[in-house]
Design goal:
It is a single chain. Helix 11 crosses helix 14 and helix 20 runs antiparallel to helix 21. It is built from 22 helices and 17 strands. By secondary structure, the protein is an alpha+beta fold. The two termini are 16 Å apart. A hairpin with a 5-residue loop joins strand 10 and strand 11. The protein binds adenosine-5'-diphosphate (ADP) and magnesium ion. Magnesium ion binds next to loops.
């Protein structure tokens, strides 16, 4: 790769209508009014919106835009955009470029085909999009993209942004109540922050196109393991190949232009697997940015003759991909609430927020689990490459020890050496050393933030963050309720911490999360071990979930039920597509190539016998082996077809999804096993698709 000088300060954010652009393009009073709306949520005057729209249009046109779109995040998990040109006809048969305040603030895409889980009856299928001015507009290709929320006419959220914004607000409100009790008079709001590390695979486009499974489902449904896998761990942090480095650089430049702080890049454990991490941002922006990251990764790959696979498990037998969701809370005036303090007062505040998280994760482990569930992730969680399906919290020995001291030390007893007394004792400096981190924990404290490691690589990070924000908000509200009544504040804090640690300390686990002992230990502790997406989904509609989300205004019951329906249906549809793809590959590719090879072997036996009556026992043996395998393969194929047809007839979203999980999915596994064996005995020249070796090692 040739190096030309890049001025990053010039490139960064050049396609974003950011603060600098606003200052340049907006009159001073308009700028101030807009800032008030962005920072404080003040209502935006329509007259101001008109001026902003016009300025935004002028800015975008200068960046080469001809169109605008309300960029939104429907329940598909992808982003959606419908472009409108800026043109408006004039009387003399020409056009002028126009963009009104109304068009900026509200859109009405007739987006009736997006999943709504029954919220939108077809006769009033319209939804509308509303500008989210807390996430800046940007120009992508030739289009001004305006980040928007997507709702039904009756106000229900139809997207992944609306509830995220609501959950951030809920957390801010409850966290502020607690901060006020600690005497904070300077902060105005609490913002949750997220840094999402993104894993992905890159494979050659020519190979990709020849694999129906990758094309239709994003993962390989057949494929024997090559002689070499990831066992040498020579790929992890290895030197980056030129072709890949060129790709990564282009992704980064594109992202920098969009204001995404792409920071770290490296090779991951599996061959052809890589990772990118940005610098953290507010949850809302981090979520928008992660969508841009995934979108950009795919688009740029195409330009390089590559395909970027974001699926959680593109290849059996080598590690799959995830997304580490680093999460914290901070005040608008710059204090990280998960940063251990140096004074007794700061310690107490830190410990209260920490305890709130511990309790939230214990009480709502089922919600965190479902927030990380998708069809692809079922192949990873609990498979010794990703965190187990059991939710637990890693705190490290020192912090765990402190919590134990809190439990032991009664609020009034200051004489017992080593006991933690709130308002008196300071915390020892906690190590922030990376080597100390436990990679097997699904939810790990890493010095000043938590890292939620179960998140699927292909999914929007909205869901996990909605849950994190909401469950922590809920515990903080309980804490505020109780401390607001306290007479002796420090003593009450001490008691509260003791109660929480006693009741919820079971969720803390610092050992090896991949071990069988942990599975057994977790069962003893009564922690849920929810093995699949289908079993995780009902957590969305329990009484507990409805009470939690409606109390904090994040989801109402209708919205929860709609989401429940959507994810169940999505699961069933995805397994059905996978099953149908396997059936097609089996019938039209694997069986024919097996039969061709069998015919060649038979022909060879006949020809040789006729010519010389020589020994043909090798061919005969191979032919027998192959024929036996083909017979078994055909039987497994028939079995899969039967259950997959049956699945289509099953009534009820949950019952149907369970049927796909319990009957169709195992039948797919059985077919694959024989198919992969056939691959290892059929002549390479006759094999109808690129192999794992091609896909993983020929990039
Ligand atoms: P590792 O791979 O060791 O987990 P990385 O440096 O790759 O570490 O990723 C850490 C991520 O955590 C980065 O995206 C970083 O910006 C993010 N992060 C750091 N501080 C915070 C914070 N206060 N809130 C949220 N995310 C944070
Ligand atoms: Mg990480």
């Amino acid at each position: 790769m040739n190096n030309t000088k890049l001025d990053l300060s010039e490139i960064f954010g050049c396609n974003v209508f950011n603060d600098a652009a606003m200052r340049e393009y907006l009159p001073k009073d308009t700028y101030k009014a807009l800032k008030r709306t962005i920072d404080k949520g003040a209502e935006l005057d329509p007259a101001v919106a008109e001026v902003v729209a016009n300025a935004m249009k002028n800015w975008a046109i200068n960046k080469g835009a001809t169109h605008f779109t309300h960029w939104f995040q429907p329940m598909t998990g992808f982003t959606a955009e419908k472009h409108d040109a800026f043109i408006s006809p004039t009387e003399d048969g020409k056009v002028i470029m126009e963009f009104s305040g109304k068009e900026l603030i509200k859109g009405e895409p007739d987006a009736s085909s997006f999943p709504s889980g029954g919220i939108r009856a077809t006769f009033e299928a319209r939804g509308y999009t509303a500008w989210d001015c807390t996430s800046p507009a940007f120009v992508k290709e030739d289009t001004l993209c305006i980040p928007t929320a997507f709702c039904s006419y009756t106000g229900e959220a139809l997207d992944k942004k609306t509830p995220l914004l609501r959950s951030m607000e809920a957390l801010s409100k409850q966290a502020m109540r607690v901060l006020k009790l600690f005497g904070n008079s300077t902060s105005e709001k609490v913002i949750t922050t997220v840094g999402a590390e993104q894993e992905y695979f890159l494979i050659d486009k020519e190979f990709f196109k020849k694999r129906k499974d990758l094309v239709y489902t994003g993962r390989t449904l057949f494929g024997a393991l090559p002689p070499k896998g990831q066992e040498l761990e020579d790929h992890y942090f290895g030197s980056i190949k030129e072709r890949i480095a060129a790709y990564m650089k282009e992704v980064e430049v594109e992202l920098w232009k969009l204001g995404v702080t792409a920071k770290t890049r490296h090779n991951e454990v599996a061959p052809a697997q890589h990772e990118m991490a940005p610098i953290f941002a507010s949850t809302n922006i981090a979520t928008d940015h992660n969508q841009l990251v995934m979108d950009t990764m795919k688009k740029v790959a195409n330009r390089h003759g590559l395909v970027c696979l974001l699926h959680e498990k593109p290849f059996a037998g080598v590690n799959g991909s995830g997304k580490h969701n680093n999460w914290s809370m901070g005040t608008d005036d710059g204090m990280n609430l998960l940063e251990p303090g140096t004074t007794p007062h700061e310690n107490a505040q830190f410990l209260v927020f920490l305890a709130a998280i511990i309790k939230a994760v214990d009480v709502h482990a089922d919600l965190l689990r479902v927030s990380a569930a998708n069809t692809g992730n079922d192949h990873r969680l609990g498979a010794n490459e990703a965190p187990p399906a059991i939710i637990s919290v890693f705190l490290g020995d020192q912090l765990t020890d402190i919590l134990e001291q809190i439990v032991k030390g009664p609020a009034t007893n200051s004489k017992q050496g080593g006991m933690m007394k709130i308002g008196v004792t300071t915390l020892p400096a906690l190590p922030k050393d990376a080597t100390d981190r436990n990679r097997t924990s699904p939810f790990a404290f890493t010095g000043n933030k938590f890292e939620f490691r179960m998140v699927p690589s292909s999914a929007s990070i909205s869901g996990p963050n909605i849950v994190l924000n909401s469950i922590v908000a809920d515990v903080l509200s309980e804490i505020a309720d109780s401390l607001e009544k306290a007479e002796d504040f420090n003593a009450s804090v001490q008691l509260l911490l003791q109660d929480i640690v006693k009741a919820h300390g079971r969720i803390v686990f610092n050992g090896n999360g991949y071990s069988q002992e942990w599975v057994e230990e977790a069962t003893k502790r009564g922690l849920p071990n929810i093995s699949s997406t289908v079993e995780a989904i009902p957590a969305l509609v329990t009484e507990k979930a409805v009470a939690l989300f409606s109390k904090h205004g994040v989801f109402n019951e209708i919205e929860l039920h709609s989401r429940y329906e959507i994810v169940l249906e999505e699961y069933s549809k995805q397994i059905n597509i996978e099953a149908k793809t396997m059936i097609e590959m089996a019938k039209r590719q694997i069986l024919p190539s097996g039969i061709k090879y069998a015919t060649e072997l038979a022909a060879s036996i006949n020809t040789i016998k006729a010519a010389a009556d020589a020994d043909t026992s090798v061919q005969a043996e191979l032919l027998t082996e192959l024929s036996t395998a083909l017979t078994s393969f055909k039987a497994k194929l028939a079995a899969l077809e039967t259950v997959n047809n049956e699945a289509a007839e099953v009534e009820g979203a949950l019952t149907q999804a369970r049927f796909y999980r319990e009957s169709v999915f195992p039948a797919m596994g059985e077919l694959r096993e024989v198919g992969d064996y056939i691959e290892t005995i059929v002549d390479e020249a006759l094999w109808p698709m690129p192999t794992y070796g091609d896909l993983l090692f020929q990039v």
